[in-house]
Amino acid sequence: MALILNIETATTNCSVSIGKDGRTIALREQDSNSYSHSEDLHFFIRETLDAASISIDDLDAIAVSKGPGSYTGLRIGVSAAKGLCFALDLPLIGISTLESIASQLKIKDGVIIPVLDARRMEVYSAVFNSDYEQIRETRVEEINSNSFAQFVEQGKVYIIGSGAVKCSEILKHPHFIFDDSIVPSANEMTQLSHNAYNGKNFENTAYFEPDYLKDFVIQQSKK
To answer: Which of 5, 80, 151, 171 is paired with 200 by a 20 to 30 Å CA distance?
Structure first.
């Protein structure tokens, strides 16, 4: 039996779950544009442990969303996860944020393209087939009228996530289907982290860094 704490802070959703053998037994999350992750995360961790009726010492591993996503959000989640791993001497599991998003959609054919909003007309994206196998690398890209053309000519393309709105303004092929309501959640991390644990696919805790893809930009005051 494996008990895994899953932490998701890559976007506006601060989300924590406890997974037991690939099944979510406790979940606490709040999707808010206020990005209050630093205030909420440790409180949510305690709540999920209590809801699952387990002690933090019962955990077998810690999993964290590794991005891409918000620079600050990722730093908060990864710092908490690494701190727990060092304190409890537990393995660290990194889960792709985009894979977690893609796993929420069930399709029979076509491809799933999870997109997270980046600056201007850019998105973080990856491409998955209906079996959730990643068939194109994760990248940051600027959306234009030719984006994802090689996939849309072959069938349905499901564009999901916070970047779907800006994509829908540019991409007009009838095979495109957009859904911006799907956010990354620790609930979907449960099965992914369980698979990684069984395969002993662990990160080097000391050197692990999130997949930022873009440099952090500090906005200068106009004063």
So the answer is: 80
Q: What is the pTM assigned to this prediction?
A: 0.93
Over residues 117-131, the pLDDT tens digits come to 998 999 999 999 999
Q: In whole angstroms, what is the distance from residue 171 CA to residue 201 CA? A: 37
Which of 56, 12, 7 has the alpha carbon at shortest distance from 27? 7
In a domain, 212, yes or no: no
d(CA 13, CA 183): 7
Distance of CA 63 to the CA centre of its chain: 11
- Report pLDDT digits (tens) over 72-111: 999 999 999 999 999 999 999 999 999 999 999 999 999 9
What residues make up the domain containing 56? 3-97+184-198
What CATH number does residue 31 fall under? 3.30.420.40
Residue 220 exposure: Cα atoms within 13 Å on the Cβ side: 2
| 42 and 124 part of one domain | no
Residues 6+ positions from 106 with CB-CB distance below 8 Å = none
Q: Is the CB of residue 19 less than 8 Å from the CB of residue 197? A: no
Task: Return the bridge partners of 3, or none.
Answer: 20
Residue 34's pLDDT is what? 78
CA distance 17 to 64: 11
Six-digit token string for 59:
């955990």
- Lowest average pLDDT, out of 2-11, 72-81, 212-221, goes to 212-221
The set of residues, in sequence order, having a beta carbon less than 8 Å from that of 79 and lying 6+ positions away, is none
Collect all residues with Cβ–Cβ distance below 8 Å to 136 and sequence separation of at least 6: 126, 127
